Amino acid sequence: MQRAMRLLEAVAEREHGAPAKQLARDAGLALPTAYHLLRTLVHEGYLRRQKGLFFLGEAAERLSSSGAQQKRRSTVDEALAHWRDTIGAPVYFAIYRDGEIEVKCVADSPSAPAVEEWADFRETGHAHAIGQCLLSQLGDEARRDHLERYPVQSITPYTVRDNETLLRRLDRIGRMEPVVERQEYALGTVCAAIPITAGTTAATLALSLPVHQADRLLPAAHQLQTEIGMLLGTLAISISI
Fold first, then answer.
1. Residue 49 DSSP code
2. Distance from C-alpha of 170 to C-alpha of 134, rounded to nearest angstrom
């Protein structure tokens, strides 16, 4: 296994491919051993051979892509955890893709627990700050399409009452303005969500607090907003996670 990995590393360092003899030298292997391993790696799809030269194959490229994706995910998780600890509130990262709300990452702790998803987040976007922030970034047609599939329904006594009232509210939200909701999704909880520009995909970072800390909500949201820039590229790329 280690010898095969050395060969893969040797091939990866040769952008324009390399013959077996060169790879054997690079990997510090006897030529017969290198030939045997190279044939096996080609058979398994980790390498491909073209005109006597070896290149990385599709299986190796998938591993590389998966590793890069995991690294991006780890970077996002670490950033959310840092903000959770710095701000003292659970932090959420969500996107709107293919007509659905997707919460991609959540960083919480026993002292800063996340909101319990007691009603499906995808179906209740009208009631929580994450959903409202994502919907505010869509065009009117896309908003109405979403509400046809997931119409407004009463979640708490504070939930917006109908589709048109929600649409009017969304129209009033400023382009980079935090979206705030107070006990519309869960009694005893207030939330704020910040829009993120990530290509053509609507995305958001959000946080939640118990209602008795409601005075902290907007300062915490603005604090989060000032720190987003350093991770914006990673957040944009991680939409593919």
1. E
2. 10
CA-to-CA distance for 131 and 175, rounded, in angstroms?
15
- Can you state the angle between helices 58-87 and 217-227, rounded to 10 degrees? 140
pLDDT of 59 reads 74
Torsion angle defined by CA atoms of residues 95, 99, 101 and 102, in that order, rounded to the nearest 10 degrees: -60
- The rounded distance, in Å, linking the Cα atoms of 181 and 130 is 9
Q: What is the pLDDT of residue 55?
A: 87
Q: How far apart are CA 125 and CA 138, in angstroms?
A: 13
Neighbours of 153 (CB within 10 A): 14
pLDDT top residue among 182 and 30: 182
Strand bridging mode 189-198 / 201-210: antiparallel
Residues 160-172, mean pLDDT to the nearest whole number: 95
The 8-class DSSP code of residue 112 comes to B
DSSP for 167-219 reads: HHHHHHS-TTPPEEEESSSSTTEEEEEEEEEETTEEEEEEEEEEGGGGGGHHH
Query: In the prediction, which pLDDT does 79 show?
Result: 85
